Description:
This protein has 17 helices and ten strands. The chain is an alpha+beta fold. The strands form two sheets. Strands 4-5-6-7-10-9-8 form a seven-stranded mixed beta sheet. It has a three-stranded antiparallel beta sheet with strand order 2-1-3, with helices on one face.
Amino acid sequence: xxxxSLKELxxxxxxxxxxxxxxxxxxxxxxxxxxxxxxxxQQLAAVRSSSHVIKYIxxxxxxxxxxxxxxxxYNYRYIKSxxxxxxxxxxxxxxxxxxxxxxxxxxxxxxxxxxxxxxxxIKNPTEKAQLITIRKDxxxxxxxxxxxxxVCQEVARAYCGNIEIPADRRIIKPTQKLVSSLxxxxxxxxxxxxxxxxxxxxxxxxxxxxxxxxxKKQKQKQIIDDYKYEIxxxxxxxxxxxxxxxxxxxQQENGHKQxxxxxxxxxxxxxxxxxEALSNKEVIGTISYYDFNGKVCExxxxxxxxxxxxxxxxxxxxxxNGFKYETLTTDANIRKSVDDIxxxxxxxxxxxxxxWYSSNNTKAAISPEQYxxxxxxxxxxxxxxxxxxxxxxxxxSAEGMDKWAAVTNKYMEMKTNISTKQIELQSSxxxxxxxxxxxxxxxxxxxxxxxLDKSTGKTESINxxxxxxxxxxxxxxxxxxxxxxxxxxxxxxxxxxxxxNKTITGWGISAVKQVFNSxxxxxxx
Length: 525
């Protein structure tokens, strides 16, 4: 047998030594932190044994990074500069874009396109991402952090018409003020329109509605003229509206009252409510925060609608398992808005119409989805293997599996006990009026009125106000759906001439504005 050459002998010794070192790393992967510049083979040996040791590797290779991310997506926190492909992989796997440092433009656009994020989740959105957002919905401008001049110019033209804005003007703050003021005005006018007392008769409704609309037009013109003055393209400020609206808080020019009417203009329109009337009267709700032991460490009370809804949104985005909310107000609009946010956070639409929250039988009820969410959150806080992991049973320790199964079974039982049947109430032309009948614990609930428009294929909710559609005659409903004016009786027994109209949230029933002759006016006097 020939003797091996000296070179082969040295290589064999080195390979044997390296193999032993790799075996040692596999048995004790944390020893990788003792190696100043580990080879890729050493990095792979450590990461394949325990992916979390990537935090000890200063410059992991692409292959090592990929293996670590695939094993546990939350290892991204230990990777200093994520590549474009790695950022896209994180987004697709459910990591929120606000947790990614400096997301590249392609990642921002992907997240916006596929609704993995909204513009306010991106710390420094590129101009292209900003433009895509406002072209889709200009009202989302207020959620853009650090909007560019070009974006401000395009938003200003969308609200004010084709105006020319010199490039050297400082317009970011004035444009934010413009959009905020116009949205507040639109929201306040909507609130006043919906709060009119329809029992006072058609003449009162027509007069007050005209006043509200005229006030809104004057106020919008004033805001736009003020904006043009502030950016230096007009010589005078706008003129204050001099219209007085009954019981509205809007006074004559000499006694103008500033009203806080910030309305939440998120991706999905929500029901409106009079914030001023509620903010100083009651505690809207509370939010309890949990410590690492699952115990309540802090409780905050909220007495304004905006702050309460915003806090729930923020916690669902950043701390979904570390808090619990409790809505104390009995206001149906607010309770529905809270549920809209919670359902939306889990990618679902709120199945309950406003009437469901107005019913005394349903205010104290807890939905199966709410029960499942609350109970699973409790189990996650107590039994989660990884507190930052996904909300599923794979992340629950063995001790918590029994409780997880019990909660799931209870949820399925609750879902089984609720049976909902869709009823077609009436049809006319391409429109069909439908509603739901739900049976739960022996009780029957009727609600969720909506209109199916076969010409567009859309099914949208209808705000019926105080009118009980189920008690109207088939002929009356046919006239309503066909767009004709028809007389309907509300719950208090008063007859009004109404018509079907399109609203920002779907459909609505509004009183018909009538022209009264001199004889009618004399009789009224």
